[in-house]
Automatic annotation (TrEMBL):
Keywords of this entry: 2Fe-2S, Cell membrane, Disulfide bond, Electron transport, Iron, Iron-sulfur, Membrane, Metal-binding, Translocase, Transmembrane, Transmembrane helix, Transport
Pfam families recorded: Rieske, UCR_Fe-S_N
UniProt protein name: Ubiquinol-cytochrome c reductase iron-sulfur subunit
Additional remarks: The Rieske protein is a high potential 2Fe-2S protein.
Gene that encodes it: petA
Length: 181
């Protein structure tokens, strides 16, 4: 009997993961016009060259999801309330202690860029959901705040921040996937 329950659990997890993967692909399709506009050589993008993203089209409170080097990333234009909520957290209380200021670029606090795979088992969390207003991962119930930091649920670490630079006030270039914030 125990093995049947285990099997059902596996199947449920698989379905959730499959849903996450589909969401990632959908997001990539939605943002593809941005990427194709900014980086004409799609073959180069696929090979892993840095990618530039136009931020001007993302409204305050909105986010986009892009696919780069085969992985999804969130680019979020945070509201003042979201920035304040992220900054007001007692960092010592966090599972993966990082101040919000270490996860954004100085002078550009409204823009949060993170990897979009949950640090538990890799699903793609849902934006503007969960107990902390950031992201909620439906696979096993991880809640991330408006800085992409894990606040509740099984994910062990924050959503990683990739290496990127601002090439202008409305344009970023993502150059590396490592989370070194
Ligand atoms: S993959 Fe398990 S909580 Fe996100």
């Amino acid at each position: 009997m125990a093995s049947v329950q285990h099997s059902e659990g596996d199947r449920r997890d698989f379905l959730y993961l499959a849903t996450g993967a589909a969401a990632a692909v959908g997001g990539a399709a939605a943002i593809w016009p941005f990427i194709s506009q900014l980086a004409p050589d799609a073959g180069t993008v696929a090979a892993g060259a840095p990618v530039e993203i136009d931020l001007a089209a993302i409204p305050e409170g909105g986010q986009i999801k892009i696919l780069w080097r085969g992985k999804p990333y969130f680019v979020r234009n945070r509201t003042e309330a979201e920035i304040k909520a992220a900054a007001d957290v007692d960092v010592k209380s966090l599972r993966d202690p990082q101040p919000d200021s270490a996860r954004v670029k100085e002078g550009h606090a409204k823009w949060l860029i993170t990897a979009a795979n949950c640090t538990h088992l890799g699903c793609v969390p849902l934006g503007n959901q969960g107990d902390y207003g950031g992201w909620f991962c439906p696979c096993h119930g991880s809640h991330f705040d408006t800085s992409g930091r894990i606040r509740k649920g099984p994910a062990p670490t924050n959503l990683p921040v990739p290496q990127y630079t601002f090439v202008s006030d409305t344009r970023i270039r993502i150059t590396g996937a490592a989370a070194t914030a």
